[in-house]
Amino acid sequence: MSPKPYTHKDAVPYRTIDWTGLEPPAFPKGAVPEHVAIVMDGNGRWANRQGLTRIEGHKAGEEVLLDVVAGAIQAGVKHLSVYAFSTENWKRSPDEVRFLMGYNRDVLHRRRDQLNEWNVRIRWAGRKPRLWKSVIDELQYAERLTAGNTGLQFTMCVNYGGRNELVDAVRSIADDVAAGRIRPSAVSEKLIAKRLYVPDMPDVDLFVRSSGEQRTSNFLLWQSAYAEMVFLDTLWPDFSRVELWKAIELYATRNRRFGGAVDTPDTGA
C-alpha cells in the first residue's frame, strides 16, 4: 500500500508529495539499481536564476528530497544515499554553514515521522567532530526511531568525505594492528569495508548528480568503485522523482562488466 500524500505546515511550499497520477516506467526485469547515490547539486545556481539568495535555494530542495525518496520507494530501490553536507562545505561562508547545519537538523526533525510511516530506515554517515550537537542528536534519534524499519534504507551523509572515511577506517585498523589484535596479513578489502561509517552499506550501483557537473566530489569513493554514473543537467530544486526514474532508465541500458570483457558475437574473423 502506498504511503498517504504528505504535507507539513513547516514545509517549504515549492512542491507537495503526491502519490496519485505518477507511476514509474516499466523498468526491465532486474534493471532497478539496489543502491542509488545522489549528489544534490545546483541550489545556488537555481537561486541566482530566480533572483533569490543561496539559502532560499537550499530551502527549495527540501520538498524535492522527499519527492525523490518517494520515487525511490515506488521504483523498488533498496538503498538511497544523499550528500547532505560534505567536509569540504566547511569552506563556505560562516552564514551559509550555520544555515546548512540548522537546515539539515530541522529537515530531519520535520520529516522523520513521515519517513518512519513510509517504513524508511534512516542512517547517518559522517564524522562527529565540528558537527553541532543538536545535529548529531537529531541524526541519532532518527536512526533509533527507524531502526526496525524494513523498507528503503535512506542514508544522510552529513559532515562526510570519502577520503576521510577511508582515513578513519585505515586508522582504526592500524590501531588494532599496533595493539596486536589484527595481523597485517589479515587486512583485506572485506575488513576495510567493515570499518566504514555504515559497514552494511552495499556498493553503489547508480551514482547520480544533478546540475550538469560531472564529478564525484569525494562522495562514497570506496562504495562507488563500479557505479554507473549519470549526470543530469537539472538543478536540484527542479529535480523530482521523474528525474530519478530517467536516471534509472539510463542505468538499465548500461552493460555492467565489473572489469570483465565485453561480450561480442563471434564473427569468425
From TrEMBL:
Substrate binds at residues 42-46, 54, 58, 86-88, 90, 92, 209, 215-217. One of its GO terms (molecular function) is magnesium ion binding. Mg(2+) binds at D41, E228. Its cofactor is Mg(2+). Its EC number is 2.5.1.-. Coiled coil: none annotated. PROSITE patterns: UPP_SYNTHASE (PS01066). Belongs to the UPP synthase family. Homodimer. Catalyzes the condensation of isopentenyl diphosphate (IPP) with allylic pyrophosphates generating different type of terpenoids. NCBIfam families: PRK14829.1, uppS. This is Isoprenyl transferase.
